[in-house]
Amino acid sequence: MIRVRSDDHPALRDPASSGRVFFVGLFVLAIWQMARLTEFDLLGLFAAFTDPAPRNFLLGFFPPAHSVAFLTLALVETWRTVAIATCGMFIAGLIGLPIAILLTRVLSLSAMGRPQRGGAVFSSFLRRVLRSLMVFLRSVPELIWALLLVRVVGLGPTAGVLAIAISYSGMLGKVYAEIFESVDPLPTLSLLNQGASRLQAFAFGLLPQCSDELISYSVYRWECAIRSSVILGFVGAGGLGQQMDLSMKMFAGDEVCTLLILFVLLVAFADWASQALRKAWE
Hints:
Elements: H1 17-37, H2 42-48, H3 52-59, H4 68-103, H5 119-139, H6 142-153, H7 157-182, H8 186-193, H9 198-232, H10 240-249, H11 253-281
Helix pairs in contact: 4-7, 4-9, 4-11, 5-7, 6-7, 7-9, 8-9, 9-11, 10-11
């Protein structure tokens, strides 16, 4: 049997192999440098489990806390977490939807072919201001907003609701505006040219085309808000995260285990509810 070497037959050689090897080596080098920068120590991670304190804490997870008093408290905090996420999303929608409508070019006077004197300059300036505002709102994470608001309004769910509302309003405004811009503008323009107001053109020309996508994205953001509201609790913004933080500080592993189980069930419920809402809307 005669073996053919790729060096003797250039047609069998991959011309992009050297480039792939170079970029793979560059990627590995970058990951190695990043691991050194973060001081990631895999051996130290395994060594931590041999320390009596972490090991005893993990062993204390079982059995989970199941007293009636603690389960009642945990269920109340779980419902409070859902309430924080829902109220925050509602306020974010009240802020983000009007901004998205103002950013939609098809609803402007220039789109109808009736530009007013100075109107185009003002509209362009207003859009730039609103886009800059949305960039600012969504560039600061909700956790940072919660840290600031806890010192303004005090500990409790109010800080969590406001943190989600501020951060998510920028996200909703940006994505809603992009959804409005992606649909067919002809029905909206037809309504506007026939004398309908811009609000009527939005409600009957633009909104019916993108309602499914708006509902789908809003429900997805609601799921994200539920997960975020748990994290916000660790900085004093109320809900399930705040109770979990207290249990961890008290080294009550059984309570932490129960709260983790409730959190997993809560995320599963949010996923089921989102699918049910999408099917009901369809």
